[in-house]
Design goal:
2 helices, extended, mainly beta, two-stranded antiparallel sheet
């Protein structure tokens, strides 16, 4: 009896993050969907969270009816995307982009939005099982975990990005 591999849960430890400029046109769309531009592959991340969409609702109580309520859909909200990784000397494309945007002195601000792709890979890293594309991303926070000489753990950097919407493939 052959086992159907599509019914078993996917492991969440093998993933890849790529980035590209958020532009309009076919080439940018193809790169954002497939992640084929290998020059834009970023450094490894140890954790990704914030892949969440929530439909906000508003409760309405009809006049003269105390025991009924109607919930009306109001719109979808998205949580910030949070990327965590160990700090390395060589900065990646995403790290440079975030640091330039948030920490460098600039006379004027211009928001350089990017499209971010998260690919969930199989155990052998040779097959993409699922992917999420996040549109119009820009950094809103960079934080470094505390340093503690008694703890002996890796120095971890957390990058938070906001985005307009995402698409699962």
């Amino acid at each position: 009896m052959e086992v159907d591999k599509n019914i078993y849960p996917v492991v969440g430890f093998n993933f890849r993050v790529t980035s590209s400029d958020a532009g309009f046109g076919l080439l940018g769309a193809l790169q954002s969907i497939t992640g084929l531009d290998s020059s834009q592959t970023d450094a490894s991340f140890q954790a990704i969270s914030g892949i969440k969409a929530k439909l906000d609702t508003q409760t309405y109580s009809p006049k003269g009816s105390n025991n009924k309520q109607v919930k009306l859909p109001m719109g979808v909200t998205y949580e910030d995307l949070e990327l965590k990784r160990g700090i390395v000397k060589k900065d990646s494309d995403i790290g440079k982009w975030c640091n330039n945007f948030l920490t460098n002195d600039q006379f004027g601000y211009s928001i350089n939005r990017k499209t971010l792709n998260v690919f969930l890979l199989d155990n052998n890293s040779d097959k993409i099982l699922m992917s999420w594309t996040f549109f119009n991303c820009y950094p809103v926070e960079i934080s470094i975990d505390s340093f503690d000489a008694m703890d002996g753990k890796l120095a971890v950097e957390t990058i938070k990005l906001t985005y307009s919407h995402f698409k699962k493939s």
